[in-house]
Amino acid sequence: MGLCVLSFSAYVVPIFVGSIGLVVFLLSMFAGCLPLVGAVWWLRRRSPDLFPRARRQMLVPLGGVLVGFLVFYFFRLIPPVPLSIPFIGIYHAVEKTQDTYRLSHERPAWRIWHHGDQEFLAQPGDKVYVFFRIFSPTRFSDQVQLRWYLKEEARGWALQDTIPIKILGGRAEGFRGYGFKSNYQPGEWKVQVETTDGREIGRVYFHLETRPEWPRSFEIDIE
Questions:
Q1: What digits encode the pLDDT tens for the residues 93-105?
Q2: Into how many domains does the chain fold?
């Protein structure tokens, strides 16, 4: 029961508060403990003979689950609910119109498992765009970070850049946002979307090659 109550509270409280973070998480844990603690307190006053059993069967498991949640949170093993990313991709250009975004890419039609140009062929002057949709509840307002990593032989994934982006909830399809990078080098890349406290919401990988200028044409996706 403690697991169910704390899980429910960890999801619902950030929706009511409209943000996430350490303070909100601790508040959700406090709110989740109240019903069970209140029930045990009521039993103690009304049926003192049942209190030892209630404490053993309700408060002790609740305390164990609470400690587990706190440990998992500080080791960043709990996902940043209620945020989630249903879509993220790599593009050569992102243009915002009145109500939509135009996403330019060179992806072959047969490469259906890629989102945009995950095989990115860069000409001089190109920028690498990351476009994403992030689900967040109505009235939710917070900030996320786009963290760009390059895979190096000696160090593995090495952080190259961090771009903050403000998000606002409300759209059924999710908040749409993007960032870009104009300074890059060939290699294996990944971009992670994270909360400000470093918990990952989603990621995308891509391979980048540089080429001289040559004629090309883009396909346009509408989001």
A1: 999 988 899 999 9
A2: 2
